[in-house]
User: What shape does this take?
Amino acid sequence: MVVKTPQSKATAEKPATAEELARRLHEIGEAGLAVFPVGGGRAAEMGDPPVRDCIELRTTALDRVLEHSQADMVVSVEAGITLEALQAELAKSGQFLPLDPFNSPGHTIGGLLATGWAGPLRLRYGSPRDFLIGIRVALPDGRLATAGGRVVKNVSGYDLMKLHYGALGTLGVIVAASFKVFPKPLQDVTVESTHESMVDAWVASERALAMPMPPAAVELFSNGRVLARFLGSPDATKRMVADLGWKTVDAAAWDLHSKAAPARWARIAMPRHQLRSIVDNLGAGEQWWASPGTGIANWDVAGGADDVRAVRTAAGAAGGSVVLLAGPSEFRHDAGAWGTPPATLHLMRRLRSAFDPNHVINPGRFVV
Amino acid sequence: MPLDKAVLEELRRAVGREHVIDSSNDLRIFERDASIEGAVPDAVVLPANTAEVSSVIRVAAKHRIPVVLRGAGTGLSGGAVTVRGGIALQVTRMRRILEIDPIAQTALVEPGVVNQELSLAAASHRLFYAPDPSSQKACTIGGNAAENSGGPHCLYYGVTTNHVLGMEVVFADGSVQWVSGDAPERVGLDLCGVLVGSEGTLCAITKIKVRLLRMPPSVATLLAAFPTIEAASQAVSAVIAAGIVPAALEMMDQVCVGAVEAHYHAGYPTDAGAVLLAEVDGIPESTVELMAAVRSVLAQNQGYAMREAQSPVERDLLWAGRKGAIGALGRIKPNYYLHDGVVPRSKLPQILSAVGEIGTHYKLPVANVFHAGDGNLHPNILFDLRERDVLPQVESAGEEMLRAVVELGGALSGEHGIGLEKSAFMPWVYSPDDLDAMRRVKDAFDAHGIMNPGKIFPDPDRKHAQLAGRTGLAIEAKWW
Assistant: This one.
């Protein structure tokens, strides 16, 4: 019935409704057990290994589009729908959610919100933090609570969307969400340049970022490749591509890129202009890719926990962080998934206690 | 209830004798914000820096005295009104722009910095601060962050929360902390995200780090007339549905246009049922293409007399009319009452006819000037406070308008906040469990309830919704 690792199917439950999920969450907690919420399982190794046995609580039966109001460009979905299924629904009316996470396909919306994973398009559109307009969560006391709404602008009550986003479910299991969606751009052009030296590659990416119509995404790879994406009206994108003078490549490059998922995966997040100094110091043999415009790098850690800790110290000193997104349990345990907790930890603990006092959800996995 | 002499003495020690106001005549100045309810504070305290804010809050915490933050007092929901008495903590002495970093494209400001001053200061670097409330010449960045304010250009650029990178805040126990910062990710819960828009009920904001944006190289602004407000609403939906997200898409009805034109002479067509102000920006190629697309959609939806600003001066005049519209309404009646409910864009025609009918029913003129692209209404109910018994009528009309907004699947406020004014209506939108979740957050930050008490949460002892709405109506209708 209960095992140590959260991967076993034998301990999984798949509630058919949000109400059932909330009820089971409550019952499991009352029984003194814990849950490990799972959507697509694409981020199952994020965070520290759970400190107690967990029952997997799967959201994948909650996979409906609740409402897509095309004219309002707003969509409400259950948490277990995959990103691909949602995009297919939105594409019918020429719309999309500007979210392109790594380790795709197969992410669920709930999983993406709980982990806060975003991809290259964050440069232009921001993360779901910016376009999540409503949320519904199941609480450990069995209640369902909603915040926000289904309009694109809303200051009615506390913005609890922000608290749940990236909280790994520790304040409640996300069961539904509403988003502001976007029209598909008239033109979508991808260009590439490759460089022998990383110095040239950094210069090239900064040049792309400084274009008068900035690209929607710029990705820099540790092999000297730079990929840029321009979205916009036809004449405008045409001029940017001509001015930049890079080789046009197939947009499928982004699909391929979105599959990236290092086995030992660390996310470096820095004030934008501090990113390069941290990445430059990773070492010549290290594999990584970065979004120089947002200040994020994804690092395929070749070494061990000591290497992570060293980079984390440097990153922290420059105002950034290093968080583990994947890796074997012992690696995550040794390096620590999160690093030094922030000075506001006591407040975060108070918030967690207000919603999940017994740490029923993901015990020991998150910062609080 | 006047504060104890010993408490006043502690406050004077915290900020200096001359920065504590406690004479009843002077206190009356701080009775109101730009909403219609007022309450006189027991003391007004004007700190000069974070340490003084912290000291004042420590005094308040010790004596369990309410603390109400106040910037320019331009808020429209009663957020700065000391409804339970206590201390009005006026931050307007904290008005320094501490840093503009043109490389990182950020600014660090104190809470009393006026919104427009920041954009003016950033202009020499070809940068600007995007959230632009109509009160931007007066309102403060601190107030904007507390209310999560919007503005016309938020349609494309997003509201305040999308532009705040981090804040230095003082919590209810007087402790000072930074939440978030320059890095794109934080470790742990996003406290900054929930503190922005918390209306002074969770913390005091003492420094704000904001993102600045590069000024677009090219801007095009179009004024278009429509025979009716419904036709203009339909055109707004059509623009967005065509996949165009302009930088701004604003509407004014005939009442408003008449007042604005008399005041500003901006060339607004006074015979039109409504006008739209549409702006696109970017590189010249994209503004040309986008403006052509906007014109075409508007023309297909009964738009006429379209006029594009030919110079920055003309553009500024068109915007002066829009942003000064509410002031211009003083030509019709001396007072106004303004709600800012939001409906799904496609429901604009329905809500605008409902608003019109409610105005007619109460025999009160209503002028609409609003962020149409976001579905964010601003019906101004015009009245003369000197008329006997008019205020309850005005409030009832406002309540009915908000009720109609909620019944169309909308939200109580898009950018003004719940404050004092709309707290009684929160149960229309949120179930007891939803409100309980918000209450837990409040208690986690402010266990003794000293930070801006009486706001956001319904207070059954004070104010009831007149319309006997079913609790959680929206939840029964949809999934929330």
Remarks:
- DSSP finds 13 helices and 18 strands in chain A.
